[in-house]
């Protein structure tokens, strides 16, 4: 808004205030009119005045009296006006004072209200802060409780899964162990069957080998008996044991006395009987395994009278 829009109201207000000040100053600073001593009216009768003059005098006196009354009324009016102006001034001062007091009271009240409002605002702000902190704390506690509950449930779920997995693992291990034990039993049974079969086969083969070897005992005995020359005086109750080593061709490579008869001549007769044979040709017909087992090195036990084993 332009400043010129306030010019006319401002000038008018200034003129109005000047007029009021002039009117008030006239009543405030006007000098109190001089109190004229009005002489007492003495009624006198002059015999030498004419009636006309008497009337004029009366008229003049009446006018003077009226003028005195008017001046008195004017003076009283002025005094009353001055008193009213003073009263108005006092009233204005009182109103101004009351207005100032009211303004101060209002300002004080407003300040107190503002202070109270600020205090209330601060209290509400503090309460809101506390409420927010409490709400935040409750929220944090709720979230912590929720998190703890979730963690507990998760732990329980993990523990259950772990327990289930462990149970499943143990069941699987038990199943595998049972299967392994079953396989082991089956393997042991198979091995036992195989071992029994092998033992049976070995026994059968051993028996066959023994029988095969035994079938050559008579042949060996006969050859040694034919080549043994008994020395005179040899007693029949003696026993001789010889250890004989052969080659796979049946050739004698070594012969030793392992149990002496007590007669060196008889012992030497037995050794020479074996040496004379020199070779057991039919032993070449034996299986090498049978030969190694029974005739690579064997013990010959006999008595001079019958050459029994």
Q: pLDDT under 50 segments (min length 5)?
A: none
- What is the CATH level 1 assignment of the domain at 218-231 and 238-302? Alpha Beta
Write out the strand line-up for the largest beta sheet, numbering strands in chain order. 2-1-3
Question: Treating each run of at least 4 consecutive H or I residues as one helix, how many helices?
Answer: 5
Tell me which CATH architecture of the domain at 218-231 and 238-302 applies here. 2-Layer Sandwich
N-to-C series of helices and strands: HHHEEHHE
Mean pLDDT: 82
Distance between the termini: 159 Å
Which structural category fits the helices and strands? mainly alpha
Describe this structure in words.
- This protein has 309 residues and is mostly helical.
- The chain is 71% helix and 7% strand.
- Helix 3 (217-227) packs across helix 4 (264-277).
Describe the secondary structure blueprint for this structure.
Layout: H1 7-29, H2 51-214, H3 217-227, E1 240-246, E2 252-259, H4 264-277, H5 288-294, E3 297-302
Antiparallel strand pairs: 1-2, 1-3
Helix pairs in contact: 3-4
Structure at a glance:
The protein is mainly alpha-helical and 309 residues long. 71% of the residues lie in helices and 7% in strands.
């Amino acid at each position: 808004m332009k400043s010129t829009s306030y010019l006319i109201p401002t000038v008018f207000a200034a003129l109005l205030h000047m007029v009021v000040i002039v009117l008030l100053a006239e009543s405030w600073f006007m000098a109190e009119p001089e109190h004229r001593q009005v002489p007492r009216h003495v009624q006198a009768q002059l015999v030498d005045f004419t009636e006309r003059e008497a009337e004029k005098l009366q008229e003049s006196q009446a006018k003077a009296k009226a003028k005195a009354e008017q001046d008195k009324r004017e003076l009283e009016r002025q005094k009353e006006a001055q008193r009213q102006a003073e009263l108005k001034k006092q009233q204005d001062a009182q109103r101004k004072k009351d207005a100032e007091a009211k303004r101060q009271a209002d300002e004080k009240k407003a300040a107190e209200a503002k202070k109270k409002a600020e205090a209330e605002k601060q209290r509400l702000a503090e309460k809101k802060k506390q409420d927010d902190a409490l709400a935040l704390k409750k929220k944090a506690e709720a979230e912590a409780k929720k998190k703890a509950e979730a963690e507990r449930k998760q732990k329980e779920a993990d523990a259950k899964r772990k327990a289930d997995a462990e149970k499943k693992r143990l069941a699987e291990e038990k199943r595998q162990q049972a299967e392994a034990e079953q396989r082991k039993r089956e393997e042991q049974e198979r091995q036992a069957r195989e071992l029994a079969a092998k033992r049976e086969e070995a026994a059968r083969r051993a028996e066959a080998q023994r029988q095969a070897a035994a079938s050559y005992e008579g042949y060996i005995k006969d050859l040694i008996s034919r080549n043994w020359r008994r020395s005179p005086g040899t007693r029949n109750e003696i026993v001789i044991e010889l250890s004989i080593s052969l080659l796979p061709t049946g050739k004698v490579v070594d012969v030793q006395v392992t149990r002496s008869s007590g007669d060196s001549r008889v012992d030497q007769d037995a050794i020479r009987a074996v040496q004379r044979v020199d070779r057991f040709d039919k032993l070449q017909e034996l299986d090498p395994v049978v030969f190694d087992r029974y005739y690579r090195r064997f013990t010959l036990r006999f008595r001079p009278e019958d050459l029994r084993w």
